[in-house]
Amino acid sequence: MSAPTEPAHLVVVNDEEQYSLWWADRPAPAGWRPVGEPGTREECLTRIGELWTDMRPASLRARMAGEAP
Description:
Blueprint: E1 9-14, E2 19-23, E3 32-39, H1 41-51, H2 58-64
Antiparallel strand pairs: 1-2, 1-3
């Protein structure tokens, strides 16, 4: 008997450049878009760790840099 396969996941990002994990077989939730290719949960979490290096929302980073929203 083979082990059950892990469902594929996606990395998704919103307009504030916040990242999350999502199921690859479902449409991305409203306001989010996929980034990259599907992978295992661990692969996607690693990708999020590489991409999301500044936890501040994009609007806050812009405000702190003195840029217009």
